[in-house]
Recover the amino acids of this structure.
């Protein structure tokens, strides 16, 4: 059973390394959808195997022989390293996307003049920026 877990961790590490490489080469996000789906399937499979092992053989980790334990530790270390690099790159990509959407929204507000003014109780004029809907490829 441990060999199955090791195989899944090795596959997951390889998928993460490929995704990281493709993100670093500035590949379109739509082209990465199949890698993200494969990563999600592998994570689900790994969680399922570990949960099953925990239920059926609670001492499975202690029962591993030395070569299997070394292979497990190596696969786990590689998975950790790959996931840290992948997570940092994906986090940066998400930040860039959020910044880009904020800039597009600010420019749309500027161009459309989508602002409202209201008098307050003291007679002061307050400006309210209304949300401008942004459409990318026909989707909001």
């Amino acid at each position: 059973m441990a060999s199955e877990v090791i195989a899944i961790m090795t596959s997951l590490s390889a998928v993460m390394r490929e995704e990281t490489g493709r993100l670093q080469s500035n590949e379109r996000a739509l082209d990465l959808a199949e890698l993200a789906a494969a990563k999600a399937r592998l994570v689900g499979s790994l969680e399922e195997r570990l949960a099953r092992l925990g239920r059926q053989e609670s001492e499975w980790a202690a029962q591993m022989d030395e070569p299997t334990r070394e292979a497990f530790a190596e696969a786990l270390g590689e998975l950790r390293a790959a996931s840290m690099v992948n997570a940092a790159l994906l986090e940066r990509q998400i930040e860039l996307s959020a910044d880009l959407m904020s800039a597009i929204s600010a420019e749309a507000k500027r161009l459309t003049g989508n602002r409202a003014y209201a008098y307050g109780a003291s007679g002061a004029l307050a400006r309210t920026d209304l949300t401008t809907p942004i459409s990318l490829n026909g989707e909001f």
The first helix runs from residue 2 to 24. The CA atoms of residues 102 and 111 lie 14 Å apart.
